[in-house]
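Long-time lurker, first post. I've been practising inverse folding by hand and with some scripts of my own, and I keep getting stuck on stretches where the structure tokens seem ambiguous. Below is the full token string for one chain I'm working on. Before anyone asks, I'm not after the true native sequence, just a reasonable design that respects the backbone. If someone could post their per-position residues I'd love to compare against what I wrote down in my notebook.
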């Protein structure tokens, strides 16, 4: 009986303590919209470059990193996470330029989003000593879904209402209302608004399953 009471007391106190620590994490950001929450433990680096919209949820063990320097390189990073976005456990988002996560985006567990990558071409020094390459921005369009273990890096735009399948590596932009899978990820479906259905495509996004047209309806 006493152990049961002690156990429940410990769980309650631990829950309250974690809630306090989660609230403290919100003070690290540039700005935070109403109703947003970041679970503890999470790592926030360069929080002055990170903006959360309203009702954003960031799960446990993630790392958000606004990286303003690497060696002798200097950057002006920005991470923007818009209203209603959900970011799963153990996700890593790093920006040297800009990473934008749109409204209502769902990012599953263990995803990696980065607008930069390590150069490796100078073989006279280690890859760690090479400079960072920052080719552009990462943008995730509104209401898109990024599956588990997805890596997105470089200058990449994911259109709105897109799906990137689990375990994919996306290094090229994909259009609105499309589904991409694979390593490297390729578009396999797009939505046909005339026929109101999802149609198969080749890797370049060209319809294989011919979409309906107004003349055919």
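-- Answer (accepted) --
I ran through it position by position. Result:
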């Amino acid at each position: 009986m006493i152990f049961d009471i002690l156990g429940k007391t410990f769980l309650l106190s631990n829950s309250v303590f974690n809630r306090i620590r989660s609230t403290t994490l919100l003070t690290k950001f540039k700005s935070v919209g109403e109703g947003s929450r970041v679970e503890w433990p999470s790592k926030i680096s360069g929080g002055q470059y990170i903006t959360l919209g309203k009702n954003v949820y960031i799960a446990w063990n993630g790392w958000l990193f606004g990286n303003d320097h690497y060696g002798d390189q200097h950057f002006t990073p920005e991470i923007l996470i818009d209203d209603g976005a959900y970011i799963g456990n153990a996700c890593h988002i790093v920006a040297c330029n800009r990473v934008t996560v749109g409204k209502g985006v769902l990012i599953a567990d263990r995803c990696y989003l980065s607008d930069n990558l390590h150069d490796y071409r100078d073989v006279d020094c280690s890859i760690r000593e090479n400079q960072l390459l920052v080719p552009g921005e990462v943008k995730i369009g509104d209401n898109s879904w990024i599956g588990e273990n997805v890596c997105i890096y470089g200058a990449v735009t994911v259109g709105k209402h897109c799906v990137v399948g689990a375990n994919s590596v996306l290094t090229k932009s994909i259009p609105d209302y499309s589904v991409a899978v694979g390593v490297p990820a390729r578009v396999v479906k797009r939505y046909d608004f005339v026929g109101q259905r999802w149609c198969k495509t080749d890797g370049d996004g060209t319809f294989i399953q011919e979409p309906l047209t107004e003349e055919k309806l």
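A couple of notes from the structure itself: Helices lie at 2-25. Residues 2-185 form a domain with the UDP N-Acetylglucosamine Acyltransferase; domain 1 fold (CATH 2.160.10.10). Happy to go over any region you disagree with.
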